[in-house]
Design goal:
Layout lengths: L45 H17 L3 H12 L4 H8 L5 H40 L18 H15 L3 E2 L5 E3 H4 L27 E3 L4 H10 L4 E10 L11 E11 L4 H16 L5 E8 L2 E10 L23 E10 L1 H6 L8 E8 H9 L12 H5 L6
Parallel strand pairs: 1-4
Antiparallel strand pairs: 2-3, 4-5, 5-9, 6-7, 7-8, 8-9
Helix pairs in contact: 1-2, 1-4, 2-4
């Protein structure tokens, strides 16, 4: 049976046992107090406001740096500060009381904010003075020598080789690093089914059908030279080449070669051998010689591998266990590059009559030559950009 709701005004005290059943809309609500004195609200009392201002001013004065002052600003002038919370009480006052309370609150907050600004300016001045003191530059102190880099040894050795051959009457020749297959393979008598033309050895531009590759050797420069220049031809071609090799101590997908090409009347293998011996002596020391071992290259016939006499032991370690050589492993010779007489098919492809002219060509890697000259054991040292490596060659930038 429902409990009847009393007909008269109700308060919580009049029905303490049935609070859930009370009709709160019938509770008695006091009318606005027109004569309410804001002094009676504790948070708006002058004594309370003066106390909060004093606390804030003390905290501001004790702030040792800008970070501490920032924390004080939040605590005493922020949205949750005692003065900000007291300011919210003004909205509940009757109109007649708001003006006096607002004036009193405004004075308190203004005093705190002004103190904050003054202290902030003082701390900023102290910070700037400290920065000037600690970061002062003594212009009378002796300057420290900066570590300078050096020209890369690959660049230097390339120029040295060019100087050797220019002194012999050769010309420098250059070509693009992105080549058509015809220049890189076909004109050099490298057939379509040659392994070097597959994706395993060659970087193709876009795909194999594009007909463009990153050159795998500097030999295309020889083709371009023979197409644009009539014999006699004496050129040296240094440059960067690309192959799909893994980067390790002796291989790199990007490396450098130097090749030489001679096309003239009456050129023989003897001319090739004499040129290689001169080149070896100029690079590694007087008296060094080369030897040729039979080999095969599609663009030369006959072809040979070039071995360099060991510049460390000069062959003295061969069959001499008491004086082993780490450079040549006591073999007396170091593999250097490849060479041969220009294949007549290559001459014909470039419009040169092989019955009238003959020629030779040779090429070797610049990195290998540099490793031989300076005892470098890891090819990667040349590519890491470490200034300590380049400065060891003593050629300042």
């Amino acid at each position: 049976m429902p409990v009847p709701v009393p007909s008269g005004p109700q308060t919580l005290e009049s029905n303490p046992l049935n609070l859930k059943k009370l009709n709160f809309r019938s509770l008695v609500v006091s009318a606005p107090n027109k004569s309410f004195d804001p002094v009676e609200v504790s948070t708006l009392a002058p004594e309370y406001l003066d106390e909060q201002v004093a606390i804030a001013l003390s905290a501001i004065a004790n702030a040792a740096n800008l970070d501490e002052l920032k924390a004080v600003r939040l605590a005493h002038a922020g949205d949750r500060s005692p003065l900000a919370l007291a300011n919210r009480e003004i909205g509940a006052l009757p109109p007649a009381a708001k003006a006096e309370a607002g004036k009193r609150m405004g004075q308190a907050r203004t005093e705190v904010n002004q103190a904050l600004e003054v202290r902030s300016a003082e701390l900023e001045a102290e910070r700037d003075a400290l920065i000037l003191l600690t970061e002062r530059v003594d212009v009378t102190a002796a300057a420290q020598s900066s570590v300078r880099g050096a020209r890369h040894p690959l660049t230097t050795i390339q120029e040295q080789i060019a100087d050797i051959f220019i002194a012999l009457g050769y010309e420098m020749a250059e070509g693009p690093e992105i080549e058509a297959e015809w220049f890189n393979f076909d004109a050099l008598n490298i057939p379509a089914d040659h392994p070097a033309r597959t994706m395993q050895d060659t970087f193709f531009i876009e795909n194999e059908e594009s007909g463009l590759v990153l050159r795998t050797h500097t030999s295309p420069v020889q083709i371009r030279t023979m197409l644009n220049k009539q014999p006699p031809i004496y050129v040296v071609c240094p440059g960067r080449v690309f192959r799909t090799d893994e980067l390790d101590a002796t291989h790199s997908p990007v490396f450098h070669q130097v090749e030489a090409l001679v096309v003239d009347k009456g050129i023989t293998m003897a001319d090739l051998k004499g040129t290689l011996n001169h080149f070896a002596s100029a690079m590694f020391g007087q008296g060094l010689v080369t030897r040729l071992r039979p080999s095969f290259f599609p663009f030369t016939e006959p072809s040979a591998e070039v071995d360099l006499q060991c510049f460390a032991c000069r062959g003295a370690s061969v069959d001499n266990p008491s004086a082993p050589c780490r450079t040549c492993r006591s073999e007396g010779w170091i593999e250097w590059g490849g060479c041969g007489m220009v294949n007549p098919k290559v001459l014909i492809a470039c419009g040169i009559d092989p019955n009238e002219f003959t020629g030779f060509a040779f090429g070797m890697g610049l990195e290998r030559t540099l490793m031989f000259r300076h005892g470098i054991t890891d090819l990667r040292d040349m590519y890491e950009g470490d200034v300590r490596f380049t400065r060891a060659f003593g050629l300042g930038g």
